[in-house]
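Entry — protein

Goal — fold tokens:
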Amino acid sequence: MSHAIYSINQIAELLNINSFSTDNNAKISKLVIDSRSIIDPEESLFFALNSKRDGHEYLKDAYTNGIRNFVISDEKYLKQFPDANILLVSDVLMALQSLAAANRKQHDLQVIAITGSNGKTIVKEWLYQLLAADFNIVRSPKSFNSQIGVPLSVWQIENEHDMGIFEAGISKAGEMESLEVVIRPGIGILTNIGEAHAEGFSSHKEKLLEKLKLFKDAGLFIYSPEYTEGLSPNEMPGKTKFSWSLKQKADLRILFIEPIEGRNYVRANFKGEEIECLIPFRDRASLENGIICWATLLALGYTPHEADLRLEKLTHVGMRLELKTGINQCSVIDDSYSADTSSLAIALDFLNLQNQHPKKTLILSDLYETGKNDQDLYTEIAALVKQKNLNRLIGIGPHISQSAGSFEMESSFYESTQDFIDNFPAIHFNNETILVKGARKFEFERISKLISQKIHDTVLEIDLNALSGNLQFYRSKLKPGVKVMAMVKAFSYGSGSFEIANLLQYHKVDYLAVAYTDEGVALRKAGISMPIMVMSPEPSGFEAIIRHQLEPEIYNLDILKSFTGFLNEHAADYPVHLKIDTGMHRLGFEEPDLGDLLKTLQESNKVKIVSVFSHLVASDDPEHDDFTRHQLERFTTIADQIQNNLGYAFIRHISNTSGISRHPDAQMDMVRIGIGLYGFDGGIVSNKGLQTVAVLKTTVTQLKQIKPNETVGYGRKGLLPDGGTIATVKIGYADGYNRKFGNGTGKMLVNGVLAPTVGVICMDMCMLDVTGLNVKTGDEVIVFNGELTIAQLARQIDTIPYEILTNVSQRVKRVYFYE
């Protein structure tokens, strides 16, 4: 995060440091928490935070990337880098927050803070659009609203800023006080209060009161009384209050809402007069967020007429990076709705996670409203893209084109988006990862459409943040030192291969496991370098296993002898994994097999056992806990016998997803996480604490009016006795939507309402009963998400979530999102 310069001594004085070795000449302008996110290492201060990962483990990476200034809390690292400035503190997070709070005190500007359960980021971005003409605004990048994100956002404040807009989110009691000290808002906005993160609070009221602590000294508080019910006047913050409501008396009382051609016309009472505005979005969430922005403009003193003019020009905010398949074997990262240096750094970090292509390309527009002159701005960007090892830059816009000399790499420049499109046939893209990053006015969605492979209207969206959150959920349950093997077999449970593996590799998972050799080979070709176990090796794949340094699972004597026989005579200690059958009775050695197994292993040093493992049969079911304990005892006995005979130790693992959540005594040396990464755990009631990773969606192709007793679909199985409206949607059994969902068994969400299937499921489509719903061609239809879950679909057809997820056809395009 860029910022005015502080000396390292000034920072040491601001923090309550326990130890300090210093180079008095060091100057700090940037705070870094990610060893990859380094723009200017000489002026960066690295904070070794202990949150999802222990930041101390990344000190060496940061040092290698040029950082020489560190804030740590573990004194064993004090002497690791003799030429570096090391600030030892008791709490690294508290130090980060204290430094940001000190910077906030140095600046006198109007600050708006936003909190609530949903809508914080959209309201922040829309207020930026609405107010940027009148203020030089600093705001939270993306959704930086956490205990870490807020101080990084506030650190960006510089002298030229006269307004700040920051969002703040909390997940448990006691967190908001520290964020209030950092932000010190004069204006507070409460978006809404829902069920998100409710598990961290004892009651709905406690959650509300904790959030409102952000506004304890605010001069103006903007809210809806629908979300503050139950609070006394003394519990409401704000010296001045401005309310809006759809249901009751308020400063801005909504009278009625009328959808008009994809927009919403809103009429309200304000100061005794009727006023109006047009919000250019149709969905319910955008409508409410737009009304909050309307209320904010009026509370700030804008006239109803001016507020209406500005609201009508609001544009879509793309808050997530979107990874999708591109033309000519490319991958496209679409971040075409925003462009500033902070979000560019985030996007480049995500680009560097992708190792599936040898070349990395950035398509970048002019950046506006950065507060910097062109020379300083594009010199900084040039240093950033060089540090990120980009191979090619395509610059679009007059300002970046005039700064072409700053970029020391393969590059080309175009005056406008249309200029690029006109020259597109002569611009070659092949086997590369392309990041599209553009300011809104450049309409880079036109470029993204050009270079992206045409997507079937049915798509499976994968939330990579949610997946990494689920990984950390399970890691938080592990004892110190326990390793993690992530199961990425079956196309990562239908979610993708290298896209998931890249993320897991970055999060330092210890092992990956695939079912077949070709899956492992594909990961190696995509740049995955971590250990990979192949669970079903076949003799025909041995050559590929060895060439790509994969590690086979050995489950019987025949496969062991075949593999050792295939290894050349000079081979030694090739890593393999022994599978023990303790009750699954699928694959694996049993106790009677141990004599021959050990004799074969002792006769040759060609292989080395790196792990011995088994599989729990019913770890999710309390009814079978006695059998689970029996499996653990049996496995320990067998593993001890193998180790005693071999004379060396190896990794032991038996615990699967539900084993982690229900059987802490089964963790041993390593655990295997599978379906839990995707938000499902049979051992956890309602999957509490896990996040939804996958959303399957499609669209309405056509609407038809059906007369009473007319039939629908093959075999005349579908019937609407009273007639009605059916919607044909673009998903069928060839896409993985099982035929058992037909005739009303299955339901999909259409504009937030459950609509049952009508008739049998066809190969490429099916029909829904949307009678009485406001539906039009092209509307989005949700097959499953966090509300209509995979678990619910599984119950509808008497199967398990695994089958629903893995059956999603490969012809359904996967789109990956990252915040």
